[in-house]
Amino acid sequence: MEFDSIKMNKDHSALNKVFLGDARKMSEIGDSFVDTIITSPPYFSIKDYSKDGYQNLSHSKKVAGQIGDISQFDEFISELTEVWRECERVLKPNGKLIINTPLVPMLKRDMSTHENRHIFDLNSAIQQSILTCLSSIYLVDTYIWNRTNSSKKLMFGSYPYPPNFYAQNTVEFVTVYVKAGKSRKVSDIVKNKSRVSQTEWVEFTKQIWDIPIPNKSDKAFGKHTALMPEEIVRRCVRLYSFFGDVVLDPFAGSGTTLKVAKELGRNFIGYELVENYSDVINEKLEANVCIKTSRTKEVPTKSGTVPSRFVNKIQNCDVFEFLNEQSSNSVPLACVDPPYNLGKGIWDTWPSHAAFMAFTKQWLDEVFRVLAPGGGLFVFNTPRNCAFILAHAEARGMDYENWITWDKRDGFASTKKRFVPAQETILYLSKPGPSKYFDADVVRVPYESTDRIAAAEKKGILKNGKRWFPNKNGKLCTDVWHITSERHKTKVNGRIVPTEHPTQKPIEMIERILKSASRPGDIVLDCFMGTGTTAVAALRHDRRFIGCELDPTYYKNAMLRINQEFKSS
Length: 569
What we know:
With 569 residues, this protein is of the alpha/beta class. It has 3 domains: 290 residues, Vaccinia Virus protein VP39 (Rossmann fold); 230 residues, 3-Layer(aba) Sandwich (Rossmann fold), CATH 3.40.50; 36 residues, no CATH class. The chain is 28% helix and 22% strand. It has 15 helices and 22 strands. The strands form 4 sheets. Strands 1, 2, 3, 4, 5, 6, 7, 8, 9 and 10 form a 10-stranded mixed beta sheet that branches. It has an 8-stranded mixed beta sheet with strand order 13-22-21-14-15-17-16-20, sandwiched between helices. It starts with 16 loop residues before the first strand and ends with a helix. The N terminus is likely disordered.
């Protein structure tokens, strides 16, 4: 088959190539382009992919930050989820994501949680992360691969006596997921070329697949430590793709998925981080298909990487265009004042609450992706909208920290039908991870009872049998913030004077957020920059910023403020 003769795909530069780079950002592939994904991800930290198939000799240097070297299981699953997010993006509607995983028994000397060996159920953990974090991916089927020639390395446990015998770990899982959407129509010619015989159908759809582990007939035997049988790939390709489709493997390894896809008349795309595997991949594919990815030079932050062209700049573009360019797990803090759907302008108007929330959830998911593990997210909105935002965030695995009430000393339009609304909500969320940061001492506020505090400074106050002295910097800040709105502060002779932006936030409020939830030098994300208050606050407190603003007038005003701040500093 000549791949270039396929009209629908002939101009796409990613086809039939293996990119030697990280699959957490598959920028070489457009949205909804891939038909089927078949892969076997790293087996946590029990395999060293810089060593040969016998785990004796090193054939290459370890790649910094690669997923297979992460020693904490929760972090490992979190990083894998970033690959699955990219898979969701590139997969066509009704496309299949097929993942081969084992149980991962840990040596007792490495991990003993209950006086026995500890087992990580990789299939279950990945399944939970996918179904929790990816809104358009659903479970379809699970097959069990029975390794008919299992390893001679036996699991003894307490052999030959009870009670702690260990199962021999002779099975793996092949789990099939689907992206929501209808099946596409294909020609009768393609259908006939893709036809599965009755015998194949009966055999392939049995839930237990009796297939041996690859042996020396595989060109990668002894070179790669975890070979997937070609027969597993063959069944998946035959069952879940058409002739001429595009098959992706984000963890290409030795190229098994790509080899079988090519043999069955499919196009292929692969990603592999260990460049040393390129020789065996090229050998299997009988062509020089491996190329290095060209990634933008990136600036390190305390939590990840950010493309340097974005740092301390505002982009005049759409929020999704901007966020799509950002690396996963790269930003330690996001402070976002998005639309509220209150009709303040075209940018703040949707035909329904459902349409508005669909938009909101879409950009939130992207911000969740970009946040570094342990990173904080502050979201402004109405109390009602924040109720929906919080529910969505927790469903996506984010941690709830605070529901902050902003007492604006001002309000929306008055009414006699209900209490006058005079507050907005700031949700403080965080992404699960080991490095959460919050400094309560830098945002202390003055004590209210000045006479009592003045007396306590000399003698203290007896509390629970201990003498308490007030902190010279004030009391800890509560989750009710009494800060006058810009709209109210700029009144002249009692009349409201329009501000540059109708919902501009007081800079002292943004400063409180940045000082408490980020360190000097950290990068702060604001994907609805407005007139640039977040950026100005960042510069004043030795932080860096990235962000975007679509409205050209607001963008211009933001740039003027930022340039002025640069000059004054």
